């Protein structure tokens, strides 16, 4: 697998996640405005929805690792030679949240996607935290 393939695939995965995140945050006030005006419920639904959104983004990156990694052995995990989709989603979640346990270590060109996944996860989680803070501040001032 070439580095160019991994780079182009990584850019596509990043675009999918960033656009999806943007669209969610853009339409959230409109959708939530139709449901309820209560601040406590609104914030609770926002936080739970963001957790679901981030989980879905981790799955997207996991699918990317699984698809690209199926072409060749992309990582080392103690005692395991093949990676299931579950392993790839777990790995993507560990990298996305910047936990990085180290039980799976990428090799070859997929190290690029690993670094990018960590960067994107950090940025999107921070974006969500900032948005949630602004929403809470808006209702706490009332």
Give the strand line-up of the largest sheet.
1-2
Mean pLDDT: 87
Decide which structural class fits the backbone: mainly alpha
Distance between the termini: 56 Å
Rg (C-alpha, Å): 18 Å
Biggest sheet record: 2 strands, antiparallel
Number of β-strand runs: 2
Shape: elongated
Which stretches of 5+ consecutive residues score pLDDT under 50?
A: none
Strand content: under 5%
Q: Number of DSSP helices?
A: 4
Task: Encode the helix/strand succession as letters.
Answer: HHEHEH
Helix content: over 70%
In short:
Helix content is 75%, strand content 4%. The protein is built from four helices and two strands, in the order ααβαβα. Helix 1 packs antiparallel against helix 2, helix 1 (3-35) packs parallel to helix 4 and helix 2 (39-69) crosses helix 3.
Lay out the secondary structure.
Layout: H1 3-35, H2 39-69, E1 75-77, H3 85-96, E2 104-106, H4 110-140
Antiparallel strand pairs: 1-2
Structural notes for this entry:
Helix content is 75%, strand content 4%. The protein contains 4 helices and 2 strands; from the N terminus they run ααβαβα. A two-stranded antiparallel ribbon has the order 1-2. The termini are far apart. The mean pLDDT is 87.
Highlighted features:
two-stranded antiparallel ribbon; 2 strands; 4 helices; 142 residues; mainly alpha
């Amino acid at each position: 697998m070439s580095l160019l393939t991994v780079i182009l695939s990584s850019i596509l995965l990043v675009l999918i996640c960033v656009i999806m995140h943007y669209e969610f945050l853009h339409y959230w006030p409109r959708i939530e405005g139709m449901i309820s005006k209560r601040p406590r419920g609104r914030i609770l639904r926002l936080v739970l929805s963001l957790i679901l959104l981030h989980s879905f983004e981790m799955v997207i990156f996991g699918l990317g690792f699984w698809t690209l990694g199926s072409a060749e052995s992309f990582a080392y995990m103690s005692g395991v030679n093949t990676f299931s989709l579950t392993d790839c989603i777990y790995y993507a979640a560990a990298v996305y949240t910047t936990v990085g346990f180290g039980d799976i270590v990428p090799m070859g060109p997929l190290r690029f996607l690993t670094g990018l996944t960590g960067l994107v996860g950090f940025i999107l989680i921070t974006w969500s935290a900032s948005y949630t803070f602004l929403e809470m501040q808006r209702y706490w001032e009332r």
